[in-house]
Known about the structure:
Helix content: over 70%
Number of strands: 0
Radius of gyration: 18 Å
Order of helices and strands: HHHHHHHHHHHHH
Structural class: mainly alpha
Largest sheet: none
Oligomer: single chain
Shape: globular
Number of helices: 13
Mean pLDDT: 84
Amino acid sequence: MNKIVSDGLFGLTLSIVAYKIGVWLNQKFKSPILNPLLIAVAIIIPILKVCHISYDSYNVGGSIITLFLAPATTVLAYSIYLQLKVLKKYWLPILVGCLTSCIVSIGSTIGLCKLCGLDNTLTNSLIPRSVTTPIAMSVSEKLGGISGITVAAVIITGIFGAVAAPLLAKLLRIKNPVIGVGLGCSCHAIGTARALELGEIQGAMSSIALGVAGMMTVIISLFL
């Protein structure tokens, strides 16, 4: 059993199967609450707990998926290319939206952390929670944060945003495709995946916002 668990294929297979179950449930019930990543997490954690499998053993295979985060993010450039004319039309709302989002995200995070009495290490770990994982980890390490906490914060932020954004859009009757900017800025790649489901223009908006917000976060972090 230990040999099977410590094999890289265990963590990789478990992650893929759990995510596929999440995708199936999401497509079957058409509910934003049934986010595939959220379902995968809900499946994997109990299995590791019940079977007494350590995170390190699971992550031997899980880390293989991490290697594809950066390449997968760059693939989003294709959707940007397809909607280049639309993006040129909305370049000002995109830039203003990204800058506002970064300032609000970082400012509110620092403010809430101070209000809750968190130390600098935890605060620095949470500051880049709204940008994609590769960028967030780099910013966190530069600020002296803990990468593991940063990754967890990024995932939670992304899942919450992907679930809440469509519901808020319906509630506020937002139909403009620029909503993709909000998804890309606030919930990075997970939000972009959700934006692509809403439409090609929303996906392109979210894709470019993801990159712009990431760069702005890096620049802002230089002054922290």
